Amino acid sequence: MIWGELETGLAGLAADGVLRRRRVLDGPCGPDAVIDGRRVLAFCSNDYLGLANHPTLVAAARDAAERWGVGSGASHAVSGHLRPHEEIEQRLAAFVGRERALYFTTGYMANLAIAPALVDRRDAIFADRLNHASLIDAALLSRAEHIRFPHGDMEALARRLEQSGARRKLILTDAVFSMDGDLAPLPALFELAERFDAWLVVDDAHGFGVLGPGGRGSAAHFELPPSPRLILMGTLGKAAGVSGAFVAGDQRVIEWLLQRARSYMFTTASSPLLAAALLVSLDLIERGEERRARLRQLIGRLREGLDGLPWRLSPSPTAIQPLMVGSNEAAVRLSERLFARGVWVPAIRPPTVPAGTARLRISLSAAHADAHIDTLVAALHDCARRD
């Protein structure tokens, strides 16, 4: 029976060291976490600028709840598009320098919207092999030919584009790769999109708010032009500290998504209080150079402190600092040893990362103190000495 198959499958996950454990936090997002009554130092969240529990955002959400209520009541296309939703779309478009933006409830849903609305089985998607799961799922849902190229390999991508006879071409990539922390070569990708008349869709989940002048993201960091072929997706629950996501680009593309993207059309709009909080968050991001400078300082402190460990720290310039361990069992064991010392760093295993590349994903935030970094460094060195 199917129940036995499920039990066997779960036992197999446990045996392979990939069974996930969900922890319950008894407090707001921040470096100091409380789990089962125990305080630990957390290096887990994507709250890169430390805004998730910022008092100004909390006050904005509270005030908006009193004015707009909690729920939107319907999809955007019916009656759920409230004034805060409209205002955040306009602000986001202006902020990233694009003609128009569309606000989504999550980044996953935003990614599921783009490719299936723009291409079909007559077309081809060219995707980096390390793209996020939401981009992979979007490519599969589109029914277009899904052509993957080795991570960051522009020569391989150029060959695949040249060989393709597809009606439409769409290049799909993360901007900052969430498990490695490295940046996609966006200028080279944009040049190939121009040469082969392709769309370039950039998932900037981990760059928005952190990279570029004023935190405007990876496209601004690389000074890409506001081309109609460039489509940006950014999430608003990471550096922005709230929830949701947006897609920004040419107004014709955005209108088409509004009319045809199923993950936008057929879902209830998010709470207006979140959109209102995001309006305040954008102000904090734009004025947040001190936070971004602080984050860069912490990255340097961590990398210097972890020099000489038996585990390799990937060459990431971002807040995502992967410590490569290797086997699933070793990564889980190291994570548990740190947790016993009051330091919480998650072990990342397949299928999230390729087999044999299990790692600890250290996520830094501007809310971390120097002492927090020093505690993590000391704990890892202590674990290394005791191996």
Describe what is shown at a glance:
The chain has 387 residues and is of the alpha/beta class. The protein contains 15 helices and 14 strands.
Please, could you describe this protein's structure?
- With 387 residues, the protein is of the alpha/beta class.
- It folds into 2 domains: 18-49 and 289-386, Aspartate Aminotransferase, domain 1, CATH 3.90.1150.10; 55-286, 3-Layer(aba) Sandwich (Aspartate Aminotransferase, domain 2), CATH 3.40.640.
- The protein has 15 helices and 14 strands.
- It has helices at residues 2-15, 55-68, 76-80, 83-96, 107-118, 133-142, 154-163, 186-195, 218-221, 251-260, 262-265, 272-286, 289-305, 328-340, 370-386, and strands at residues 32-35, 38-42, 100-104, 124-128, 145-149, 169-174, 199-203, 230-235, 245-249, 312-313, 320-326, 343-344, 347-348, 358-363.
- The strands form 3 sheets. A 7-stranded mixed β-sheet has the order 3-9-8-7-6-4-5, with helices on both faces. Strands 10-11-14-13 form a 4-stranded antiparallel β-sheet. The protein has a 3-stranded mixed β-sheet with strand order 1-2-12.
- The longest helix is centred in the C-terminal third of the chain and has 17 residues, at 289-305.
- The chain is globular and about 60 Å long.
